[in-house]
Amino acid sequence: MEATRVTREQVLEASKGMLQKQFYVVFSKPTNGIGPVMENVPVHLEHQRKIEREGILVAAGPHWTDDEKFWDGEGMFVIRASSTEQARELAAADPMHQCGARSFTVRPWLVNEGRLDLRIEFSTGKMTLD
């Protein structure tokens, strides 16, 4: 009989030797149109910069519409946390969520594969991330 679910332990065993870095992804979407979102962008970005400085925020940004021409207020951010519960608490602390302009869902994310290229030129102070 075929398994209907794969356990965390099975995934960790199958990906042994890979990065196996646990993060949490917060998907954030407007609850009442773009107006309340735009009103709260400054305090939201201030909060994002704060948790970035604290080492919590890994990456964040908007989701474009499928044609890549517009932003309807949706976003996503990746955070470090010790559990899904802590990740939910961190997400709830975002002013955008506190005021009700956006709602959120949190999903645990195990990073195994991928590549980032970071180039730093000391003489010019130029940094490139691909």
UniProtKB/TrEMBL annotation:
Gene3D superfamilies named among the record's database cross-references: Dimeric alpha+beta barrel
Originating organism: Cupriavidus pinatubonensis (strain JMP 134 / LMG 1197)
Record-annotated YCII-related domain positions: 24-109
Family of this protein: Belongs to the YciI family.
Name under which the protein is recorded: YCII-related domain-containing protein
